[in-house]
Design a protein that fits this description.
Blueprint (H helix, E strand, L loop, with lengths): L5 H15 L14 H8 L1 E5 L9 E4 H15 L10 H23 L7 H14 L3 H10 L4 H22 L7 H10 L9 H30 L3 E3 L3 H20 L7
Antiparallel strand pairs: 1-2, 1-3
Helix pairs in contact: 1-7, 1-9, 3-4, 4-7, 4-9, 4-10, 5-7, 8-9
C-alpha cells in the first residue's frame, strides 16, 4: 500500500545517491583525442576491473579526476578553480570515481536497463544547477575545454548508477514512525531545537538518507573487494608529501629546523 511518505523516501534516496555521486560526474573513457594516443598524453591514474587497459576494464584518466574536482569546487564556491588542485581533493575524487565505477560495472553485469533520455537530461540539469546555473556552467566548460559530449557521458553514467541504486536499495529509505520517534527522543539528530511534529518528515528523510549512505558504503566495499583496482597515480601519497612539505615550511618559519645558532 502506498502512503504519503513514499515521495519523501524517493526524494531522500535521490539526495543520498546524489551525495554518493558528488560533483555529478563519472569517469569518462577518453577525452576528445582518439585511442591510446589520447591516453598516453592524458595520463592513466587508475584501472578498474583489471591491471591493464583492455576492452573489459575502465580506465580513469587524470583529466577525468581533475574535471570532477573542478566541478566539486564549483558546487561549493563561486571562486574559480585554482591553477593547481589540492592533492587531498584529487585523492578523494579518485576514490569516489572508483566507487561509482564498481557500481556501474555491477549494473552492467546484472544487465540493468539503460537510462532513458529523460533520466539523462534530469542529471544534466542537476549538474548545471549544482555549479550555479547555465551561464556559469558554460563558462566552466569553456575555461577547462570540456566538450559537451563529456557532460553527456557524465550524465548518462550518473543516470545508470542512480537508477541501479534506487532499484536495489530503495528499502533503505522506508523509515517507520516508531523509528522517527525513537531517534527524536535520543537527541542524535540535527533537529534538537524544534518540536517533533514540525520535524517529523525532515527527520524521516534524514534517517533514510543516512541509512542509504551506510548501505551504499557497505555495498561499494563488497564490490571493491572482488573487483581488481590498480591505482597508477596515488594522489593520497601526493597529499601526504604535500602535508609533510607544509610541516617543514611551517617549522622553518618558526625557526625549529634549518636555523643556525
Amino acid at each position: 500500500m502506498r502512503t504519503s511518505r513514499r515521495p519523501d523516501a524517493i526524494r531522500a534516496l535521490l539526495a543520498a545517491s546524489a551525495l554518493l555521486l558528488h560533483a555529478l560526474a563519472v569517469v569518462l573513457p577518453a577525452r576528445a583525442q582518439s585511442g591510446e594516443t589520447a591516453r598516453a598524453i592524458d595520463g592513466i591514474v587508475a584501472i578498474v576491473g583489471g591491471h591493464a587497459p583492455s576492452p573489459t576494464t575502465d580506465v580513469v584518466l587524470r583529466s577525468d579526476v581533475e574535471l570532477r574536482a573542478v566541478l566539486a569546487l564549483a558546487a561549493r564556491t563561486h571562486d574559480p578553480a585554482p591553477d593547481e588542485l589540492p592533492p587531498e581533493l584529487l585523492a578523494a575524487t579518485l576514490q569516489e570515481i572508483v566507487g561509482e565505477l564498481v557500481i556501474a560495472r555491477e549494473a552492467t553485469r546484472l544487465h540493468a536497463p539503460e537510462p532513458t533520455e529523460t533520466q539523462v537530461e534530469r542529471h544534466r540539469e542537476e549538474l548545471v544547477r549544482s555549479v550555479g546555473g547555465e551561464d556559469r556552467f558554460a563558462r566552466l566548460l569553456e575555461r577547462h575545454a570540456v566538450a559537451a559530449s563529456e557532460i553527456d557521458s557524465i550524465a548518462r553514467r550518473r543516470a545508470l548508477v542512480d537508477a541501479f541504486l534506487r532499484a536495489n536499495l530503495e528499502g533503505s529509505t522506508l523509515i517507520s514512525d516508531a523509528r522517527v520517534e525513537e531517534t527524536y527522543a535520543s537527541g542524535d539528530h540535527p533537529f534538537t531545537d524544534r518540536p517533533l511534529d514540525e520535524v517529523r518528515e525532515p527527520l524521516r528523510a534524514w534517517l533514510a538518507q543516512s541509512a542509504l549512505q551506510r548501505d551504499v558504503r557497505r555495498w561499494v566495499e563488497v564490490l571493491r573487494s572482488r573487483t581488481p583496482v590498480r591505482v597508477v597515480v596515488p594522489f593520497a601519497a601526493l597529499f601526504e608529501e604535500d602535508a609533510a612539505d607544509r610541516g617543514v615550511e611551517e617549522a622553518e618559519e618558526r625557526g625549529d629546523v634549518g636555523s643556525e645558532r
